Amino acid sequence: xxxxxxxxxxxxxxxxxxxxxxxVGRGAVLGFLGPNGAGKSTTMKMIAGFLAPTSGTARxxxxxxxxxxxxxxxxxxxxxxxxxxxxxxxxxDFLEFIADVRGLKGAERRKCLADAIxxxxxxxxxEQSIETLSKGFKRRVGLAQAILxxxxxxxxxxxxxxxxxxxxxxxxxxxxxxxxxxxxxISTHILEEVEAICTRAAIIxxxxxxxxxxPLAGGGWRFGNLxxxxxxxxxxxxxxxAETQA
Length: 246
Hints:
By secondary structure, this protein is an alpha/beta fold. It has a domain at 82-150. Helix content is 34%, strand content 28%. It has eight helices and twelve strands. The protein has helices at 40-47, 69-74, 91-101, 106-120, 135-147, 165-178, 191-197, 233-241; strands at 2-11, 14-24, 29-33, 55-60, 63-64, 76-79, 153-157, 183-187, 200-205, 208-215, 221-223, 226-228. The chain has an eight-stranded mixed β-sheet with strand order 6-7-8-3-9-10-11-12, with helices on both faces. A four-stranded antiparallel β-sheet has the order 2-1-4-5. Helix 4 (106-120) packs antiparallel against helix 5. 42% of the residues are buried.
């Protein structure tokens, strides 16, 4: 459902992403890990069609995001870092605006709005302007807009950033519930989150994927010849990325 091949993004000659290739199938939750500046967000922006690649291809549900961006974006729910939104809009008005953008109408529109609001538990703040919301509620409004049209592909950049432990638990449960019908990519710095909800993990450093791992049946993770015992993913992460950091 997500296919990226030899994806490159250069800024003034600097390769922020340098030949990344990955595939993500239905039912998979890919944890996209890496140190700051590794190229995670830039890669996700290219998959979502927010940035055009310098070279390489990204396809969503078989659709090239550069050649046919509107059709690709119809199948994507994207939560960017920072949860940008119109600060003077109320949370409810913002979601109505997103419903307009997504072309939702009638009973389907009402159902999608009600489902998204209930799933991320933002009913109490619908009448508040976004600029007055806490960081956690802003993030939840951002998540609501990403899932509003029930897309088959979700690209979530730090989805639990700013949430308290209870809110993080709720969002993780939501992701697990949605996962069987979708392909989901999650960027996160919270390694326990990867262990809690991801079915795969890719580690990127200096713009390149340095490892692609999967959970072990008895707990823990395997990245090629490297194995992480349960709760010890940090050691493998550091071993794979320390030498590549400036």
